[in-house]
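Appendix B. Raw example, untouched.
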Amino acid sequence: MFYVYLIKNEKGELYYGYTNNLRRRLLEHNSSKSSYTRNHKWQLIYYEAYLERSDAYDREKHLKHYGQSLSHILLC
């Protein structure tokens, strides 16, 4: 299973990503093992599950490309 996820930090900043292990990836974000999300406390606010890696990758790319991704998720 592959996951596209949305996390938010204490400043309200959003980060979109995809992974095959959601728990591990969230721990990596919160332990500063990810350069972009370093030095912040992140909370998972949304995720979608996919059977194929390519589907999750395409969805993540789509969400990152459009400026109003959060509103797109909430409307779907």
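End of appendix B.
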